[in-house]
């Protein structure tokens, strides 16, 4: 749970990596540098179309938008901007817009006649009013955690929707952060399986990678541009991306790819502000403000991502590896079991090929068990079935780090149980404790009861002031679902079939009768993708954040946080660990939280909140911020009203002789992780086309296979896999 900062010391041993400035986990393989290194950003060269730049900037200047309107919430003291389009050439306008909520304290009122004075204020407001904001630059807001903000220094929260990598219609921004002093931004985005009509009247597929991410980048450009113009309050240097599940993936990709030129062509195509092509093919990324050119970036300062479903490129192997380490896990079919074995070996080779190492002092763990935290430890996965049969032969320092993170996260949870409110606690006989007994519980008592599952959490969604309300475990918030419906609402073979393929089912495919037919489809799809899109890019590479973290051309953020449910089955926890390693190697402060008993898209709990973390980052990494501490817990004095304990008993997995220093084995944690496993193998590039396969479609084909690792395994092991395909026994 503790935040890791500084360079982690991932040793990139080859000189080519040092010269290129790539972060660890750089897996780009297509003539990768593409035009990226050749078409460098350049603001000195002559613009290819100066008039186009002028037209875009004039059109996207909010004060020139006669349709902009503002509504006021008295209860939340927030002004909300009507939805406005953020580009000049939208493909699907209802998905390429933005709305902004501004705290009332920053607003003198609305200027309705362009004289610069407030005509409508919160005192005489009655209905939505057209006009421009009159900003109070002297006003201050003290957040619920005690941080102080002004209109010019306020963080800007960019909500990345894209649940299931799907489209999101434009919606009005929420007022939830007004009391915290943040500017809140809601943006739409195109997504998988969207369609549009060309000039010939023909319908085509659109919204695939990277357009969902591009639309979010374009929204950020629009808001930043209007902040620089003085049309909106906020600080362009303090953007925070946030989202859950597929939205969490995009929040992560947004910050990981900050202002990288690989996305400029797509932004230019849409008519985004602040990114233009020069006559020599390079790019200009400035806007004209008061007659002077100012740099405009589509990047972010920080990120808080919930259950980030990224990176997809390693997701199949990482999840199979987690499953395979549990010797008690039963795969649905012999084919999936054998494939998991091959994927596990592939994941070991992938990790070992990164030449990773870690400073024990940086992560705070004694990984080599020599009694100190002074060493630099090489991170590897090793295999010896005779010595480590309990994990199907796998062990190593990389897995020691994984285990240490799990241990630390559980210990943090136990140490913070004094923050519980409205939980119902039970004794060993299953009887609810009296109020007096609850009041007398020590931290150790609560920890023991939690481990033994003798509790029921509050039926109300836990929400600390300023935090993001969390959904029930395993469910996605309605506002994050987009048009595709809830996850798991359809069968495999549709774009909204959950995060990926369900673990249930006795056959490997209903679409392909033979292994050879399936293999041919994979090969054709992947060959097509690897040829590149109209800009020469491999879409899979564009959607892998590990290709961009710390890479030359990327503007690294200051900090990043990823929150995963420790028991969620939607994504391997190795993926968030790998992202943290890459962030730390790039010098970015990085935190991962694996929330015990948490499902998919968990909210902050036990005294933590979204706003607390943002306020703490502002205090630590800005000159004007102050240090913010978590408030002291007020112990629960009354028991809840539930009659039956519903907590998960994890006592069989955890050694808790000393509740202040719990421990467990790698085999134990593998078993814990698979108890709520919900994916087949492969779980992401699904054989019958699953959710993520629709992210990498084309204008004529809505879904395509994309995982080169899977294809290589299929081709290299066809003699063993083919006879098992579609065989239930």
UniProtKB/TrEMBL annotation:
Composition-biased stretches (Basic and acidic residues): 36-50
Alphabetically ordered keywords of this record: Signal
Annotated spans, Disordered: 28-50, 464-506
Signal peptide (from-to): 1-23
InterPro entries in UniProt: AB_hydrolase_fold (IPR029058)
UniProt feature, compositional bias: Polar residues: 487-504
Stated name of the protein: Tannase
Source species: Enterococcus raffinosus
């Amino acid at each position: 749970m503790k935040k890791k900062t500084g360079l982690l010391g991932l040793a990139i041993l080859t000189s080519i990596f040092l010269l290129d400035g790539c972060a660890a986990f750089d897996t780009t393989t297509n003539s990768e540098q593409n035009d990226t290194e050749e078409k460098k950003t350049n603001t000195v060269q002559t613009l290819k179309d100066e008039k186009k730049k002028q037209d875009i900037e004039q059109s996207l200047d909010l004060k020139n938008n006669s349709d902009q309107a503002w509504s006021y919430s008295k209860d939340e003291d927030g002004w909300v901007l009507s939805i406005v389009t953020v580009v000049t050439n939208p493909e699907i306008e209802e998905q390429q817009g933005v709305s902004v909520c501004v705290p009332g304290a920053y607003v003198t009122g609305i200027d309705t006649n362009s004289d610069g004075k407030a005509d409508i204020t919160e005192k005489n407001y009655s209905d939505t009013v057209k006009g421009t904001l009159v900003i109070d630059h002297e006003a201050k807001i003290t957040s619920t955690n005690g941080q102080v903000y002004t209109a010019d220094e306020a963080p800007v929260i960019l909500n990345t929707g894209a649940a299931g990598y799907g489209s999101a219609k434009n919606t009005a921004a929420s007022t939830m952060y007004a009391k915290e002093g943040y500017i809140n931004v809601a943006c739409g985005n195109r997504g998988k399986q969207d369609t549009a009509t060309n000039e010939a009247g023909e319908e085509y597929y659109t919204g695939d990678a990277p357009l969902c991410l591009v639309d979010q980048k374009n929204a950020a450009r629009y808001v930043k541009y209007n902040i620089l113009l003085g049309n909106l309050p906020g600080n362009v240097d303090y953007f925070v991306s946030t989202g859950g599940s597929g939205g969490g993936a995009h929040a992560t990709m947004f910050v990981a790819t900050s202002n990288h030129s690989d996305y400029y062509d797509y932004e230019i195509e849409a008519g985004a502000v602040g990114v233009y092509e020069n006559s020599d093919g390079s790019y200009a990324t400035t806007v004209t403000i008061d007659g002077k050119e100012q740099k405009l970036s589509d990047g972010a300062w920080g990120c808080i991502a919930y259950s980030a479903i990224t990176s997809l490129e390693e997701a199949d192997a990482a999840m199979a590896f987690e499953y395979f380490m549990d010797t008690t896990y039963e795969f649905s079919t012999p084919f999936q079991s054998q494939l998991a074995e091959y994927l596990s070996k592939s994941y070991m080779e992938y990790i070992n090929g990164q030449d990773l190492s870690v400073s024990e002092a940086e992560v705070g763990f004694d990984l080599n068990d020599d009694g100190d935290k002074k060493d630099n430890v090489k991170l590897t996965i090793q295999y010896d079935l005779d010595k480590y049969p309990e994990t199907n032969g796998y062990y190593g320092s990389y897995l020691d780090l994984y285990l240490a993170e799990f241990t630390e996260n559980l210990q943090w949870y136990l140490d913070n149980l004094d923050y519980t409110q409205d939980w119902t606690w039970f004794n060993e006989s299953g009887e609810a404790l009296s109020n007096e007994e609850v009041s007398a519980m020590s931290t150790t008592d609560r920890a023991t009861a939690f481990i033994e599952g003798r509790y029921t959490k509050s039926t109300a969604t836990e929400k600390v002031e300023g935090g993001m309300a969390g959904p029930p475990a395993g469910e996605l918030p309605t506002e994050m679902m987009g048009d595709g419906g809830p996850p798991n609402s359809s069968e495999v073979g549709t774009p909204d079939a959950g995060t990926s393929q369900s673990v249930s089912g006795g056959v490997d495919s209903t679409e392909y009768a033979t292994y050879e037919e399936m293999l041919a489809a994979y090969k054709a799809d992947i060959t097509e993708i690897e040829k590149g899109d109209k800009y020469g890019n491999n879409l899979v590479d564009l959607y892998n954040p590990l290709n961009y973290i710390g890479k030359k051309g990327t503007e690294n953020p200051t900090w990043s946080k990823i929150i995963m449910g420790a028991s969620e089955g939607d994504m391997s926890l190795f993926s968030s660990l790998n992202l943290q390693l890459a962030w730390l190697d790039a010098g970015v402060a990085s935190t991962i939280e694996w929330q015990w008993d948490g499902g998919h898209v968990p909210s902050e709990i036990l005294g933590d909140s979204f706003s607390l973390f943002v306020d703490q980052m502002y205090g630590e990494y800005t000159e004007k911020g102050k240090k913010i501490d978590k408030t002291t817990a007020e112990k629960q004095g009354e028991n809840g009203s539930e009659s039956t304990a519903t907590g998960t008993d994890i006592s069989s997995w955890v050694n808790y002789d000393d509740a202040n220093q719990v421990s467990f084995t790698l085999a134990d944690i593998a078993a814990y992780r698979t108890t709520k496993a919900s994916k087949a193998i492969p779980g992401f590039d699904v054989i019958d086309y699953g959710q993520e396969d629709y992210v990498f479609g084309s204008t004529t084909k809505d879904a395509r296979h994309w995982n080169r690792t899977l294809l290589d395994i299929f081709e290299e092991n066809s003699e063993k896999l083919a006879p098992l395909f579609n065989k239930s026994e």
